[in-house]
Design brief:
The chain has 600 residues and is α/β, with parallel strands linked by helices. Helices cover 64% and strands 9% of the residues. The protein is built from 20 helices and 9 strands. A 9-stranded mixed beta sheet has the order 4-3-5-2-6-1-7-8-9, sandwiched between helices. Helix 7 links the parallel strand 7 and strand 8.
């Protein structure tokens, strides 16, 4: 029973709930996070400051660790520099500082380095003189922030408009894992194209259930202007959805958005013992808006209507109910054994051992069948990989066809090649919708296969309970739209810009060639993620299928040991057995009380 309770405790302790903080550069992410922590840990400035993604977790003492790019990631960065000017500047700058000792930082796998918290800015600041931040992939920071208890972490991201497109990919990777997102927008630079695109992607294509839009630097404008910014943001979302022919999604997106205006700087003054400066500027702590943000987080994470709390509590209750049932069954059995004589115990033991032999034969047969299914599903995964390859090939053809159709249309109507912005929308929309469809079909095929196996075993062994892993339906819903397509779009735009009536066949071939070359990294990423997720789910699935067998085997061993223990102590006097019986009854009553409380 202790093992079952330890498992439940481990489950509760290992829950992770991620809060993602996003926004373009200068949105005020670091200042707000400093205000929440009540300490100026992350660098802030009127120029781009935090150049790396920072994961903040709970720690009794402040800690910091940097993780550098690995060799494959750095190779992609250098390849991107061939096509994008800003990336070329970034790579040239890095080589200028680290040409002779890049290998000291870039390795396989990624190298890590523990650093002093007070020295964090030297590794994350874009203003740092040695440009160490160029080599850093992300930072892990330990903080005593009370919100971080119980497995909660905050992910502070670099700007969405970062010139290093791989940083945007890292941001999207983590956002795909986030349960709640705080998206910050500077009140004077709100609802940029990047803001709107990111909000829509997070809610429609990633694993984000709700977003808090934080309008920062609210002390710089009037309340009326803040309201105008919120309305402008909603109109911009509607306009972008219209461009993508996704108007029907507007109500869903607006329903999952919440807006709060704050002055992080004024909040930080209050939190760091400089309240007089904020009060002199006319701002109480309540006026700063930070308390409203904290209240929102408290309700979302810990409130009685918290989705996170409900899911965790439901799962813990289910596990606890099972542990209670097992405990009561075991204690009831032991109580019955106390009333039996030596002959009765020997008969009980003989019957148990006979049933055990019979069941072990069945279970060994079941284990062999499950092993055969494991091999079958491994082969199925190989065929699924081929499915992904074929579907991604079709997606390449779809992108090319849509561009050719657009070229024909604009040459006919406007007598010129399509505008670069239109090319970008066509390519990004095709990739998003295409990948969503591909992964949905992949998931369906995978789930159908696993379900058939589960049902086959359930029907054949009806007296053994098996359960379907509910993660199957959720596992493939996020994380596949993290790649940045800027290099692909740049090359396609260059080809499209040269289109005219006389060279359409040539343009067709050039588009296909560019898409094929640039799609290789996207194809690798999609296949790798799909197979990795599938293999992980297979491990969980077959662990579930084998769990009842292991539980039965464990119970036989425990019952056998219990009978033998009672046989060895059968000479105990009557008062000792009465004492044991009374103690067991007390334990049963105690567990039944726990069971009653759990059902409330």
């Amino acid at each position: 029973q202790n093992d079952s309770l330890d498992t439940i405790i481990d489950y509760l302790n290992n829950q992770t709930f991620s809060i993602g903080i996003t926004g373009v550069m200068n949105a005020g992410k670091s200042t707000m996070l400093n205000a929440l922590m009540g300490k100026e840990i992350l660098g802030t400035s009127v120029v781009p400051e935090t150049a790396n993604l920072t994961i903040v977790k709970y720690s009794h003492t402040p800690t910091a660790k940097v993780i550098y790019w690995n060799e494959n990631e750095w190779k992609r960065i250098e390849e991107s520099a061939h096509s994008i000017d800003a990336m070329r500047t970034f790579v040239d700058e890095t080589h200028q500082y680290y040409a002779d000792n890049l290998n000291d930082f870039i390795g396989t796998p990624s190298k890590e380095e523990a650093i002093e918290v007070d020295n964090l800015s030297a590794f994350t600041s874009a203003k740092s003189s040695d440009k160490r931040c160029n080599l850093v992939k992300y930072v892990e920071l330990g903080s005593e922030l009370h919100f971080l208890h119980d497995g909660i972490e905050i992910v502070d991201t670099p700007g969405l408009d970062d010139i290093v497109i791989q940083r945007e990919e890292i941001t999207k990777e983590y956002i795909a894992k986030c349960d709640l997102m705080l998206h910050l927008m500077n009140v004077s630079q709100s609802a940029t194209e990047k803001d709107i695109e990111f909000i829509i992607d997070a809610l429609l294509y990633q694993n984000v259930s709700k977003i808090l839009i934080v309008i920062t630097r609210a002390d710089m404008v009037s309340k009326k202007e803040v309201s105008e910014v919120i309305e402008y943001t909603k109109r911009s979302i509607a306009a972008r959805l219209n461009t993508e022919n996704s108007d029907s999604k507007l109500d869903f997106i607006l329903k999952n958005l919440h807006f709060i205006a704050i002055s992080s700087q004024m909040a930080l003054l209050h939190k760091t013992g400089r309240a007089k400066e904020a009060l002199d500027a006319g701002y109480t702590l309540e006026d700063s808006g930070i308390l409203e943000v904290e209240s929102y987080l408290d309700k979302t994470l810990f409130g009685k209507n918290s989705e996170r709390s409900a899911l965790i509590i439901h799962s813990a209750r289910t596990r606890l109910a099972k542990a209670i049932e097992q405990s009561l069954t075991s204690l009831g059995y032991e109580l019955r054994l106390l009333s039996k004589s030596t002959d009765e115990l020997n008969i009980e033991l003989a019957q148990l051992q006979k049933v055990k032999v019979e069941q072990m034969l069945r279970f060994n047969s079941l284990k062999e069948q499950i092993s055969a299914y494991e091999s079958e599903l491994e082969n199925f995964l190989e065929s699924e990989e081929k499915f992904l390859e074929n579907e991604l090939q079709k997606l390449q053809s779809i992108i090319k066809k849509r561009l050719i159709d657009e070229i024909n249309y604009t040459l006919e109507k406007e007598k010129k090649a399509p505008h670069p912005a239109r090319v970008k929308v066509i390519v990004e929309t095709a990739i998003k919708h295409g990948l969503v469809d591909i992964i949905r079909d992949y998931r369906y095929k995978f789930v159908q296969k696993a379900t058939k196996i589960s049902e086959a075993i359930r029907l054949q062994y009806s007296d053994v309970s098996f359960s379907m892993n509910n993660e199957f339906e959720e596992a493939f819903k996020s994380g596949f739209l993290t790649s940045n397509n800027e290099v692909l779009i740049t090359h396609l735009t260059q080809v499209v810009s040269g289109a005219n009536r006389s060279n359409l066949l040539k343009i067709d071939d050039e588009l296909l060639g560019v898409i094929k070359v640039e799609f290789s990294s996207l194809e690798t990423m999609v296949k790798s993620k799909a197979i990795t997720i599938s293999q992980s789910l297979l491990v969980s699935f077959f662990t579930e299928l084998k769990a009842p067998i292991h539980a039965y085997e464990k119970k036989f061993s425990e019952d056998e040991a219990m009978i033998e223990r009672h046989l060895n102590s059968i000479e105990d006097d009557e008062s000792m057995r009465n004492t044991q019986s009374l103690e067991i009854r007390k334990r049963i009553k105690s567990i039944e009380l726990i069971e009653k409380r759990c059902s409330l």
